[in-house]
What we know:
This protein is mostly helical. The chain is built from 2 helices and no strands. About 70% of the residues lie in helices and about 0% in strands.
Amino acid sequence: MKSKKNNPNLNEAFEQLEKLVGQLEEGAFPLEELPKKIKLANKLTAICEDKLRKIKDDLNP
Length: 61
């Protein structure tokens, strides 16, 4: 079974993404961590897009 961290729901993924973007905007990370954080942001964005697509498909069969 996947953990919540590996398979967050839409709200959790969006909240994590918002927090990460805020930290990136503040420059809260050293430059060495930037590629890792951008990769995480891309993953969270993909999760949100996938979950929103599924919701849309459920509403418009």
